[in-house]
Structures are given as C-alpha cells and as structure tokens.
Amino acid sequence: MLPKDDSCAAVEDRAEGDPQHPLILERVEKKPEKKWHTVVLDQVKKHCSCTPEKVKSKILGFVPILKWLPHYKLRDWILGDLMSGIIIGILLVPQSIAYSLLASQDPIYGIYTSFFSSVIYAILGSSRHISVGIFGVLCLLVGQVVDRELALAGYLPESSIGINNSDTLLAGQGNSSNVECDRSCYAITVGATVTFTAGIYQVLMGLLQVGFVSVYLSDSLLSGFATGASLTILTSQIKYLLGLKIPRPQGYFTMFKTWYGLFTNLATTNICDLITSLVCLAVLIPAKELNDLFKSKLK
C-alpha cells in the first residue's frame, strides 16, 4: 500500500490482443506549488504569444468567409444559391418598405438595412441558419421612440406633411428660419441612435453571459408575446391598406387607440389604395396556399 503523501499515476501498457495485461502503478513526484505571480505570467505568455498558427486562427475566426469560401463547390451550389438570392431579394423589397414605415422612416432606409446587413453577415457571420435583417417587432419599438422624439422636437405629425411642406420644414427648431435637419433627417438620426445603443447593450449582455435568462421563459410566455406582436403589426398595417394618414398614438393601449382612429376616419379611405391592397392580397394568399400544397412535388 502506497503512502498517502505520495502521488501515483496509472500507466496502462497493454499489448494489442492481450486484455489480461496487468495494470502497473508508478510513483510520480509531487510538483512544487507555483506562486500566484508565476501562474499569472504563464497564462499571459500562453495567451499573448504570437505564432503564425494563432494569427491564422484569429483571422479566420473574425472573418469566417475566408475559411469556407475556398471550399465552395461552385458547380454544385451556385444555381441553387443564385435562385434563392433572387427570390429573397424580390421579397425583401416590399417587406423592407413596409418595415421602414413601421419604424417611421423613409422606405429607402428599409432597403438599405436589408441589403447591407445581409452583405455584412455573409462576410462576418458564423452560422448559415440565422436570418439577418429587420423584424416587425423591432421596427415597432423603434417607431414608437422616433415618433415620440419627433413630437418633442416640434415636428408635425405624418398626416400633416402633405399640407404644407414649408411649414413642416420650419416646424422643427421652433420659429427659427435656419433648419439644418428636416423631419426625415431627424427621424433617421433618432433611429440610428436607438439602434446603436441597443447594439451596445447586446454586446455587454453577451460579455456578461446574460443569455441564461431565456431558459426561464416558458413556451406560454413566448407564444403570448408572438401573438401580441402579430396583432400589433397587423393593426399598424391597416391604415396603409386603407390609405389613411393617422398619427401613431403614444402611451398605453395604443392598439385600441389605433382601431378607434381607423373607425373614425373610415370615411376618408383612399379607394385606389384599397383596391391595390385587395388585388395584392387576392394574388399573394392563393399563391402561398398553392405553394404549401404542391411544394413537395415541385423542384
């Protein structure tokens, strides 16, 4: 029996085909404990040493496209990827315009966001299953902040823009005749500031490993949130379907306030916008149902 103070290690020296080979124990001398500053210096040298392999690994980690692009099978994958890109690009144009209206921005900014975010993620992204782009709930949240800040800055509501453009330009900065930023410029400034601030919070939450909170979110909570968000998005789109120019309500119970504004202004519905919306729905909904029905038979 070996003393308790000695450290022993089991060395398995078996020959192939001889499972009955005995297990041999060898005595290993106990290494002297290192001081804390020695341990710190060893860790610093380990992580801060610069070798060609580490430089290559860091570059491929930050720019993953350099890792998978040389192995891309051009002949086998280019046709499917090209068709997918064209179809998604066609779908993103009207979707981006609708989402930019939710965020109280000009339609062009929604197209910019969809295009550049996809290009940036193709270069820096590490997962091919993540959908990158703009989402309805986020656009609604940003739009609430943008509308509130526009009202505080003195800009006229969206429904009053077409009445007198010169008054709208002079509405921001009080009665000053020198206006450096109009309503659209101020709206995108607020939206970009909110987005940048949210990105900083997300980076900090990632560094602090706050993602464990999602484990405690039940399926019922997530389903209720998704249902509420879909109803809110549907409500916000009705005024565009009818061609009504109604300012977005602020505060609590915004969905009920929006429906009240829709019913009270129903007599001013734009017939051309309504007919165009109904024709689009009559084409898109049957096409979606037919696609779900016959997609297993189509290549």
Describe this structure in words.
With 299 residues, the chain is mainly alpha-helical. It has eleven helices and two strands. It has helices at residues 36-48, 52-62, 65-68, 74-102, 107-124, 136-153, 165-169, 183-207, 219-242, 254-264, 271-294, and strands at residues 7-11, 24-28. Helix 4 (74-102) runs parallel beside helix 6 (136-153). The radius of gyration is 30 Å and the shape is elongated. The model is unreliable at 1-16 and 162-178 (pLDDT under 50). Residues 79-296 form the SLC26A/SulP transporter domain. Its main location: membrane.
Secondary-structure-based class equals mainly alpha
Largest sheet: 2 strands, antiparallel
The averaged pLDDT comes out at 77
N-to-C SSE series? EEHHHHHHHHHHH
What is the spatial order of strands in the main beta sheet?
A: 1-2
Shape descriptor: elongated
Radius of gyration: 30 Å
- Summed up, the helix count is 11
What fraction of residues sit in β-strands?
Answer: under 5%
Name the helicity range.
Answer: 55-70%
- The tally of strands reads 2
Q: How far apart are the termini?
A: 72 Å
Low-confidence stretches: 1-16, 162-178
